[in-house]
Amino acid sequence: MSAKKIAIIGGGNLGSAIAQGVLKSGFVSASDIIITKRNLATLAGLQQQGVQAETDNARAIAAADVIIVALKPYNVKEVLSQFKSAFDPTRQMLVSVVTGVSMDELEQIAGKGMPVVRAMPNTAIAIQESMTCICHRNTTAEQAVWIKELFDQLGVTVSIDEKLMDAATVLGACGIAYALRFIRASIQGGIEIGFDVQTANLIAAQTVKGAAALLISGNRHPEEEIDKVTTPKGCTIAGLNEMEHQGFSSSLIKGITVSYNKIVKG
Ligand SMILES: NC(=O)C1=CN([C@@H]2O[C@H](COP(=O)(O)OP(=O)(O)OC[C@H]3O[C@@H](n4cnc5c(N)ncnc54)[C@H](O)[C@@H]3O)[C@@H](O)[C@H]2O)C=CC1
Ligand SMILES: O=C(O)[C@@H]1CCC=N1
């Protein structure tokens, strides 16, 4: 596969995390990554590793084969429309990780026929542990393989229909925050029953990692693994049932649907 230069437009939380992950993966060398932001102060760490930081989006776009847009949703049209004539559909692809901006809209912004990709990663991309959902249009076979390979280097990828992209945002991207809130609550409980915060943090985080690994390695449904933990008349089922009485599953399901409706209905 040919080497490609990447421009990341919008070096905020996710844009920087993508740059960090790409650097760690070695899939693209530091000198082939440009990241843009209006104020470059927070990009010093990436610059020290050889990434080029820029305030000039036009220069970054012109130099790139792959343009990854990581701007806030309300900024995308305004910022990218200024560079409409700079996009070259014969050699570039536009990859958006932006919530709620469709491939139709991206094509309108970048010009009809522009190869466009929507990717929905999460912040674990910084450590090559993202869950990334992808869909694309107008891409060449080589571009489609390249972009999947890039995200495969940065975690796990799945190809989805665009109509599921908002759902992917909630389950995969927001999901990091939801999982961390579960861990935070476990830490608070752990402190109440005797652990110091560092030990509670380690136990809660490693336990969640182990639970996730059981599902992923065995391709199992959670309840199969839960059944192995719940001793009859034991403490696990007593705790689980109390959590359900207090609305544990229901609160998560409701939170996920409210989050989804926030994207879909605004
Ligand atoms: N943070 C997350 O976990 C995830 C975010 N997303 C999506 O990624 C996008 C970015 O999200 P965050 O990184 O959290 O937001 P952010 O606000 O941290 O990053 C956006 C960055 O764009 C920069 N920016 C604004 N105008 C610019 C311009 N004209 N040129 C260059 N840079 C400019 C801002 O200074 C900021 O650093 C959003 O659309 C969000 O929906 C998607 C999945 C996960
Ligand atoms: O909260 C948000 O809107 C963005 C989208 C997914 C993660 N953060």
TrEMBL record:
Segments forming a coiled coil: none
InterPro entries tied to this protein: 6-PGluconate_DH-like_C_sf, NAD(P)-bd_dom_sf, P5C_Rdtase_cat_N, P5CR_dimer, Pyrroline-COOH_reductase
Positions bound to NADPH: 57
Enzyme class name: oxidoreductase
Domain Pyrroline-5-carboxylate reductase catalytic N-terminal: 5-99
Domain Pyrroline-5-carboxylate reductase dimerisation intervals: 162-262
One Gene Ontology molecular-function label: pyrroline-5-carboxylate reductase activity
Entry's Gene Ontology cellular component terms: cytoplasm
Pfam family, one: F420_oxidored
Pathway: Amino-acid biosynthesis; L-proline biosynthesis; L-proline from L-glutamate 5-semialdehyde: step 1/1
Residues bound to NADP(+): 9-14, 70-73
An example Gene Ontology biological process: L-proline biosynthetic process
UniProt entry keywords in alphabetical sequence: Amino-acid biosynthesis, Cytoplasm, NADP, Oxidoreductase, Proline biosynthesis
Primary localisation category: cytoplasm
Entry EC number(s): 1.5.1.2
Family named by the database record: Belongs to the pyrroline-5-carboxylate reductase family.
HAMAP family registered for this protein in UniProt: P5C_reductase (MF_01925)
Protein's name in the database: Pyrroline-5-carboxylate reductase
The encoding gene: proC
